[in-house]
């Protein structure tokens, strides 16, 4: 009898072990299964799981959301999972009520003072004209959006602990989580695949929905990691003599910029397309310069900066340059979020859009929340549902409420450059620029030849702007770059 029980146990153990090995073989990574974690401790006072300072809370949240998505109609778990993350993002901030709504019922009955009556009048007027555009947007906007502490900082202005926390949480998302009944899912890959489908790409590019769709996408990733996404201010690297020498292309920040990423915080990543994470910086395209930013901010409505444009480069055109400049997965439309740099790049693009909207408000003539140009594919129509973020319509992405879910700490200025160890003041242009890496770099031409053996196929971003310095870096590699990594 004991022999029979032992044999049965051994068989069950073997089956379970083989199943796990097969799953690991498919994903190429260790599966997170930790039944010892008490996920109930991460529920808030509403009974919902939340991300806390403990990294185990990330596992609990994503396991719960995806398992719930598997049983929810429609039978499209990834979309349901992503929209649940979006719901968390949309409810992450509390906003102060306007002064008029703070009056109690008793105060309203005994409202006799001039100030009190003025507040009541403006409260009624706001309700009456809520749907009409207002010329004085600035003061009203400030009054309603000051209770959200999701502040995004330039990546070189983060403390080491802040940067390490960000990269650690991104890496946690990259680990497979086991599902009941077998199989697993990788949260990061599910989120990156949002930018992969034809319908999503059509809804997100070459039209008015470009800045707002990617703003929502950033919110989804922030909900997934529980902290703000820092932004990478390209201007600080563009102003260098050799941008490819920037400190960001070291293991302290993004890891190597040429070839497979085998060191740094994202070392040895395998993407959702089962490819090694790769880059080939500085061959073509361009980082965003101060001149490009000033060119954007001189316009006072969205139409001149939304693709397609006639006399100017659109925000999307300018954004395409760094995608091509970094190359690798980042240069391919449906693979670009597979490199975490995607989210730091788009955090900066979102910052530029924030500056533009702020500028339009200050003129007093344009309400950026309703200034939605009729451009792009039919799926980008003003009142169409935002694909795949089914809780929103496209116009919602332009709202002050969505913008108010994040804030930005401005980049540092000369002469002290915020005291950052990674920045220095260039007195000739009176701007802070990135310090160069002190690491001894091997022969760059040799590294590029090795990088060219890595073929990353797919439709590339189109960059109408090329930094003249890139065309001279490795002229003999350009044609090959367009076929592979470019």
UniProtKB/TrEMBL annotation:
PROSITE patterns: TYROSINASE_1 (PS00497), TYROSINASE_2 (PS00498)
Pfam families referenced in this protein's UniProt entry, alphabetically: Tyrosinase
The keyword rRNA-binding appears for this protein: no
Keyword Lipid metabolism among record annotations: no
Domain Tyrosinase copper-binding, residue spans: 205-222, 339-350
Keywords: Copper, Metal-binding
Superkingdom per UniProt: Eukaryota
Matches recorded under InterPro entries: Di-copper_centre_dom_sf, Tyrosinase/Hemocyanin, Tyrosinase_Cu-bd
Transmembrane segments: none
GO molecular function terms listed in the Swiss-Prot or TrEMBL record: metal ion binding; oxidoreductase activity
PANTHER family: TYROSINASE FAMILY MEMBER, TYROSINASE-LIKE PROTEIN TYR-1-RELATED
Name of this protein: Tyrosinase
Taxonomic path: Eukaryota, Metazoa, Spiralia, Lophotrochozoa, Mollusca
């Amino acid at each position: 009898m004991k022999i029979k029980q032992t044999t049965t146990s051994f068989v069950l153990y073997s089956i379970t072990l083989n199943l796990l090995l097969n799953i690991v073989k498919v994903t190429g990574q260790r599966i997170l299964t930790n039944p010892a974690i008490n996920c109930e401790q991460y529920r808030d006072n509403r009974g919902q799981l939340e991300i806390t300072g403990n990294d185990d809370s990330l596992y609990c949240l994503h396991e719960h959301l995806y398992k719930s998505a598997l049983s929810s109609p429609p039978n499209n778990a990834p979309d349901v999972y992503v929209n649940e993350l979006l719901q968390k993002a949309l409810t992450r901030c509390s906003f102060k009520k306007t002064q008029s709504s703070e009056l109690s019922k008793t105060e309203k009955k005994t409202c006799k003072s001039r100030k009190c009556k003025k507040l009541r009048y403006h409260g009624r007027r706001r309700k009456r004209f809520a749907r009409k555009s207002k010329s004085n947007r600035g003061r009203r906007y400030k009054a309603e959006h000051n209770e959200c502490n999701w502040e995004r900082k330039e990546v070189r202005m983060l403390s080491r602990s802040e940067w390490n926390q960000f990269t650690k949480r991104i890496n946690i998302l990259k680990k497979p989580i086991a599902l009941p009944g077998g199989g697993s899912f990788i949260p990061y890959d599910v989120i990156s695949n949002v930018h992969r489908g034809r319908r999503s790409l059509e809804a997100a590019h070459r039209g008015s929905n470009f800045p707002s769709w990617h703003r929502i996408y950033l919110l989804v990733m922030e909900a997934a990691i529980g902290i703000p996404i820092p932004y990478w201010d390209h201007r600080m690297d563009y102003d260098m003599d050799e941008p490819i020498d920037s400190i960001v292309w070291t293991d302290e920040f993004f890891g190597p910029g040429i070839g497979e990423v085998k060191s740094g915080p994202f070392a040895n990543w395998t993407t959702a397309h089962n490819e090694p994470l790769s880059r080939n910086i500085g061959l073509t395209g361009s980082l965003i310069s101060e001149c490009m930013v000033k060119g954007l901010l001189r316009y006072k409505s969205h139409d001149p900066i939304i693709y397609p444009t006639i006399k100017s480069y659109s925000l999307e055109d300018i954004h395409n340059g760094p995608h091509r400049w970094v190359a690798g997965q980042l240069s391919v439309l449906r693979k670009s979020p597979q490199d975490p740099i995607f989210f730091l790049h788009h955090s900066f693009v979102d910052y530029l859009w924030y500056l533009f909207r702020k500028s339009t408000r200050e003129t007093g003539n344009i309400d950026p929340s309703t200034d939605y140009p009729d451009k792009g594919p039919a799926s980008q129509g003003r009142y169409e549902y935002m694909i795949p973020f089914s809780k929103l319509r496209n116009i919602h992405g332009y709202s002050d409420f969505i913008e108010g879910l994040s804030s930005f700490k401005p980049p540092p200025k000369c002469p002290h450059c915020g005291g950052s160890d990674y920045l220095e003041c260039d007195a000739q242009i009176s701007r802070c620029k990135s310090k160069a890496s002190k690491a001894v770099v091997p022969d760059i031409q040799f590294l590029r030849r090795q990088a060219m053996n890595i073929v990353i196929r797919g439709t590339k971003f189109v960059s109408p702007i090329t930094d003249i310095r890139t065309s001279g870096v490795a002229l003999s590699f350009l044609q090959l770059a367009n076929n592979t990594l470019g």
